[in-house]
Amino acid sequence: MCGIVGYIGSRKASDIVIKGLQRLEYRGYDSAGISVFLEDKLKNFKKQGKVKDLQEHIKQISLDSTVAIGHTRWATHGPPSDSNAHPHFSGNQRLSIIHNGIIENYAAIKKDLAEKGHIFQSETDTEVLIHFIEDIQENLACPLEEAVRQALNQIIGAYAIVIMDQDNPDRVIAARKGSPLVVGIGESEYFLASDATPIIEYTNEVVYLNDMEMALITREQMIIKKIENNETQEPYIQKLEMELEAIEKGGFDHFMLKEIYEQNRSIYDCMRGRLDALSGKLTLGGIRNYQDNLVNAERIIIVACGTSWHAGLVAEYMFEEFARIPVEVEYASEFRYRNPVIKEGDVVIAISQSGETADTLAAMELAKSKGAIVLGVCNVVGSSIARVSHEGVYTHAGPEIGVASTKAFTAQLTVLGMIALKTAKHRGTISDVRYREMLVEMEQIPAKVKKCFELNEQIETISELFKDSRNFLYLGRGFNFPVALEGALKLKEISYIHAEGYPAAEMKHGPIALIDEEMPVVFIATRDSSYDKVVSNIQEVKARKGRVIAVVSKGDALIPKMADFVIEVPDTNEAFMPLVAVVPLQLLSYHIAVMRGCNVDQPRNLAKSVTVE
Ligand code: G6P
Fold first, then answer.
1. DSSP assignment of 278-333, as one string?
2. Which of 26, 27, 308, 609 to probe ligand 1 with, by most ligand atoms within 8 A of CB?
3. DSSP bridge pairs for 275
4. Distance between first and last Cα of the chain
5. Percent of the chain with pLDDT over 70
6. pTM for the full model?
7. 354 C-alpha to center of ligand 1: Å?
8. C-alpha dist (Å) from residue 598 to 57, 266, 384, 584
9. What is the pLDDT of residues 367-399, one digit of tens each?
10. Cα dihedral 546/551/554/557 (nearest 10)
């Protein structure tokens, strides 16, 4: 969380930084700030609110600095305010810093510094870090880069930082541990950012800093050093393949809607070159070397957070159904702290859109340290999770910018479905005929997802009727149970309506007490092995006057007789139904949120990339 951007070159740096911050706003948006040189003096401009508030704040000031750093914040230490916004100055105002991450031992350092007379303007851990650097530089009378290095070797926590220096205006210093930092290389100019989206407009040559590396960057060169021992590192320059249009709204009102509508394409892209139903081939080159570990695994542990955790639940059902391998799905945040039993040979699959979720990363490190094979299912190429895994499969959904995850979820299901089927084939737990049928069915999914877009108008009408509800219940069974969880999560994230997802049969052990004529109950009731049971659950809700919105398979004749509203989706195999059935639920939450006047792409308190635990 928090987005950072920096620039050094010959262009107007503030324009590049502000535009970059707008691209990174998904990482946090409670306050923003920028450092520039103004009449040769290092100056900070900071504002609580969105990047556009900062833009407004500085619009009268003529900023022609060719070096700048900027930050968009998701508050951890200290509430959103002008003073807690980054950048932060050192005590003598000669250094300025932006930071994404958390300094865990900041309190002890702050206490020491305060005793030495340091006065702090904010409640942040970041301001402590820059004072600490200043203090070391003064005490050791050493160059800034050495003071930065010494400070970073003493702090505990995660960081991606960029520092500007009044005494050396033609250089910035950057460093990372745990939080991401990408450096774009231009002609006598460098761009720095938390991800590549602020950079791709200017260059496609980038270097992803590794953990515990720092970069000394002037207009003409970048020197990378190890923080631990000051050893110079050879930068590994990569070519970005991202297109600019992939990170723009392309005529849609919101990124979320655009991303919902991209799903037929993104699912197709995810299968492209991997799935060939005609020849019965599934090629997953990313996990080639660990294929046997997967096939022979006694169990699989899936770790993830949020929507990715829901994808993990669907994967559990897929692996157990096809490959007959027991699967445990764990919240990464719980797994990492509860001394889990991990045996040599266990396969851990980490699922993450951003590839930067701190808890998922830590869970992977833990599993690795205990001898497990760790595979990643990740969207962001080059991200930390992709790099920490032994091997992995990218979801290739393209940049997802709306904070509520949509196309990343369906792409994750696609990848996990392919891994499960391939593993099953190698284990001999699926017949050839069924395997081929499943591949053929999988190839049809993009077209079926596209068909769901025709439901948009009907869902808008339903949204209008339910937009003022105070609670929602989402129920499903089997493969559709995780879809119920995901539907509820989407609604609460962006419309702030309380929503719960439950296994339909569990309803009678609690949530049924909530049902009355005010309670909308969304059933995912497609034609599958638990269809008859779900029909009974619908009856139970109707008997208590609940208002039923049912997502059903096309042509269902029974449920329309009992539900208040039915949303018909194309039928498919039950294992793939989550890919189809989730689409109307995404649209429902989207329309309700828009009708309630909520900020769909940047819901309050949330961030897309949760780089703190
Ligand atoms: C945040 C996002 C969710 C996402 C979750 C896990 O909470 O708002 O949309 O599902 O993090 O993120 P990851 O990037 O690891 O999938």
1. TTTEE--GGGGGGHHHHHT-S-EEEEE-HHHHHHHHHHHHHIIIII---EEEEEHH
2. 308
3. 282
4. 10
5. 100
6. 0.84
7. 7
8. 24, 26, 32, 19
9. 999 999 999 999 988 888 998 999 999 999 999
10. -20
